[in-house]
């Protein structure tokens, strides 16, 4: 690790500079937010605050809403069975109507997880500042934007002023060099980075992900990577925009068209980090060292390669670290030093803002033909948006999944966070393509989460226990994606 | 209405041990199905307090010896995870006025500042000393002084003082009574409009 002195600017610096309205006396910047995304959990309260203060929405055309956290994925007919969930949906719907905000409701056919919807509609673009009352807003950095998760009072600030008060961040470039081995995905890369740098290693930093292995990732894999920057403590993660970025955006509903497109691409190219950009820190990682990764504990940094053992208690003499290990082992009911492979699972979940996009579903579907979900395992595939769902169905992916014994659900956050009916029960173990393995995260206070890539979830689903997807699906060099 | 200038927070404390105490532990998501923040205090650390995630214990925040505590003390990376303002709201509504920890997750600390609840960072040794003082004397009085950048307390006959650190801008904002940035942000309407007009994508 160490900084890189240079005369050029990083993307972060360029985008930041272009959006600073002014510096506030306390040293924070007043930052203009180009795109504001809202959902039903963290925004209704902000509208309440606006009403109390008799304030309007400054730029309603730059805020877009959808509903994702609380929506059921089996039956989305309203009223929802849960009156509290219905109340949240109603509150957001009423606020959008009152303040003139575009709402991608179920009836629009474009509803979905906010971090899936923004990119797929082409709302998310390079060089933007983006804010949303959700920590996984970092996802949108995949396009070369500064994308910030914010609290509800800041949602209020953005609604009322289109700006935020925020202190600048340092920039750490994380270069992943070389070629990822078969069966290793962006999910494994980010879990490996978090394991290496720690869950608080990114505090105070924006993470710039680069290097040949990152450049080779498609846009949806880049979103997976940036999505979990926050789990490494970095408020922002981003990838410099390139031809893949432009190709992904071209023709999308809210992407510029015609002459505006040509201008936009020119602007977007200029926003990428200069080759001689200065960084506060640089970390190099070899792609060939990364293997399919699984979390075993209660923090995303507690992860091992699938062919490794979970740590032994003797792995550290530090009293505090030992206490953290034992708390995790007690909760997870795992044996210190045991192989992670073979750990029995009860539930398999493919979906979420981390891994609920079309390419995630395609990648799993292309390998699970001829395999069956193991007896006793409940397996869910939850598309990230209605658009993902429709396209997947057009390609017949839904039939591949149901034939293999998975349930094919409707779009929503589902089992990632337990605000809707999809929840673990008791101390069930879930192989999950989501982003957090915190205690109680998946809805049962004693539920246990093992984070991994979607293909690893599929492997676990078919074997009934944690398994190496490379072995289960016969991925050798040159065969995988 | 001008905001309170928060220069000092004084009161008794409660120590919740552990690193990486995440927002799901501070308030589980299932209690976030609400359209206001009222009443969230009761759900603070709910699963740990109710014994749902482990053996039933008397959680430190329920310990009668710490009744009335206004300063929450914890370990490294406190508040990691979600951006949910429900987490600082639950802490605040439970009765806390400041948090001392070895370090904080960034979004969480920013959310606390906006509520006028200082997140002050002290060294690992200082946390150990505070924890030890609270074990010996649960009613130990702490004084967080943002002006002097110190936390001080007395344990037995010994006076302790630890240097505190805060995120750039937060200390000044609290001390000047500008921790809720909205009024300042509203002041720059014309500058905002001018910058927005300059950005091609914004007006497109």
List strands and helices in order, with pairings:
The complex is a heterodimer of chains A (481) and B (204).
Chain A: H1 11-19, E1 20-23, E2 29-32, E3 35-38, H2 44-53, E4 63-66, H3 83-99, E5 102-104, H4 114-120, E6 129-132, E7 146-149, H5 152-161, E8 163-166, E9 170-177, H6 186-197, E10 205-210, H7 212-215, H8 219-227, E11 236-239, H9 243-249, H10 258-271, E12 281-286, E13 293-295, E14 303-305, H11 319-332, E15 347-350, H12 352-355, H13 358-368, E16 378-381, H14 386-394, H15 397-403, E17 407-408, E18 429-432, E19 448-451, H16 454-463, H17 469-472
Parallel strand pairs in A: 3-4, 3-6, 4-5, 6-7, 9-10, 9-12, 10-11, 15-16, 15-18, 16-17, 18-19
Antiparallel strand pairs in A: 1-2, 2-8, 13-14
Helix pairs in contact in A: 2-5, 6-8, 13-16
Chain B: E1 8-15, H1 23-26, H2 46-50, E2 71-74, H3 86-94, E3 98-101, H4 106-114, E4 119-121, H5 124-136, E5 141-145, E6 150-155, E7 158-163, H6 170-175, H7 182-187, H8 189-198, H9 200-203
Parallel strand pairs in B: 1-2, 2-3, 3-4
Antiparallel strand pairs in B: 1-5, 5-6, 6-7
């Amino acid at each position: 690790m160490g900084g890189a002195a240079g005369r050029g600017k990083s993307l972060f610096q360029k985008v930041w500079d272009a959006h600073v309205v002014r510096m506030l006396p306390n040293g924070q910047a007043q930052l203009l937010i180009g795109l504001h995304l809202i959902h039903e959990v963290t925004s209704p309260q902000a509208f309440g605050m606006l009403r109390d203060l008799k304030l309007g929405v400054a730029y309603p055309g730059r805020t877009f809403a959808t509903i994702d956290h609380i929506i059921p994925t089996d039956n989305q007919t309203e009223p929802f069975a849960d009156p509290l969930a219905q109340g949240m949906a109603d509150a957001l719907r009423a606020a959008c109507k009152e303040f003139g905000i575009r709402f991608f409701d179920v009836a629009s056919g474009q509803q979905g997880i906010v971090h899936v919807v923004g990119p797929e509609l082409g709302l998310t673009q390079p060089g933007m500042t983006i804010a949303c009352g959700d920590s996984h807003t970092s996802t949108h950095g995949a396009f070369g934007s500064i994308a910030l998760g914010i609290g509800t009072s800041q949602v209020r600030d953005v609604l009322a002023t289109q700006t935020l008060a925020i202190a600048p961040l340092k920039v750490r470039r994380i270069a992943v060099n070389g070629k990822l081995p078969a069966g290793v995905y962006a999910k494994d890369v980010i879990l490996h980075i978090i394991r290496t740098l720690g869950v608080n290693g990114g505090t105070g930093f924006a993470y710039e992900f680069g290097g040949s292995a990152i450049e080779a990732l498609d846009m949806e894999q880049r979103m997976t990577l940036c999505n979990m920057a926050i789990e490494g403590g970095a408020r922002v993660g981003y990838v410099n925009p390139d031809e893949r970025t432009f190709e992904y955006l071209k023709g999308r509903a809210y992407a510029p068209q015609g002459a505006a497109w040509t201008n936009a691409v020119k602007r977007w190219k200029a926003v990428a980090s200069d080759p001689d950009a200065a960084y506060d820190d640089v970390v190099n990682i070899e792609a060939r060292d990364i293997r399919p990764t699984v979390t075993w504990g209660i923090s995303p940094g507690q992860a091992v390669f699938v062919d490794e053992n979970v740590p032994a208690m003797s792995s550290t003499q530090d009293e505090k670290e030992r206490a953290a290990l034992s708390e995790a082992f007690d909760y997870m009911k795992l044996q210190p030093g045991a192989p992670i492979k073979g750990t029995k699972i009860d539930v398999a979940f493919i979906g979420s803002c981390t891994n609920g996009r079309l390419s995630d579903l395609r990648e799993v579907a292309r390998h699970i033909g001829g395999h069956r979900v193991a007896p006793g395992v409940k397996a869910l595939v939850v598309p990230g948006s209605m658009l993902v769902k429709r396209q997947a169905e057009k390609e017949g992916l839904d039939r591949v999944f149901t034939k293999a014994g998975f349930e094919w659900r409707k779009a929503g956050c589902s089992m990632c966070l337990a605000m809707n009916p999809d929840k673990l029960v008791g101390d069930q173990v879930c192989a999950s393509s989501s982003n957090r393995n915190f205690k109680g995260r998946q809805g049962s206070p004693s539920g246990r989460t093992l984070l991994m890539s979607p293909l690893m979830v599929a492997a676990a689903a078919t074997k009934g226990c944690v398994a190496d997807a490379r072995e289960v699906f016969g991925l050798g060099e040159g065969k995988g994606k | 209405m001008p905001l309170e200038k928060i220069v000092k927070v004084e009161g008794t404390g409660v120590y919740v041990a552990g690193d990486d105490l995440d927002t799901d532990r501070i308030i589980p998501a299932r209690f976030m199905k609400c359209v206001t923040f009222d009443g969230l205090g009761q759900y603070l650390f709910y699963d740990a307090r109710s014994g749902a995630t482990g053996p039933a214990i008397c959680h430190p925040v329920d310990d009668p010896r710490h009744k009335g505590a206004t300063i929450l003390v914890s370990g490294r990376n406190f508040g990691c995870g979600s951006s949910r303002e429900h987490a600082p709201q639950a802490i605040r509504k439970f009765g806390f006025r400041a948090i001392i920890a070895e370090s904080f997750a960034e979004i969480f600390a920013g959310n606390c500042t906006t509520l006028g609840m200082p997140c002050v960072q002290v060294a690992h040794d200082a946390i150990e000393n505070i924890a030890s003082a609270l074990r010996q004397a649960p009613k130990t009085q702490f004084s967080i002084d943002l002006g002097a950048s110190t936390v001080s307390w007395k344990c037995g006959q010994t006076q302790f003082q630890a240097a505190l650190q805060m995120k750039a801008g937060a200390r000044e904002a609290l001390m000047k009574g500008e921790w809720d940035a909205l009024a300042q942000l509203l002041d720059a309407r014309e500058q905002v409009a001018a910058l927005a007009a300059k950005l091609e994508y914004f007006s497109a």
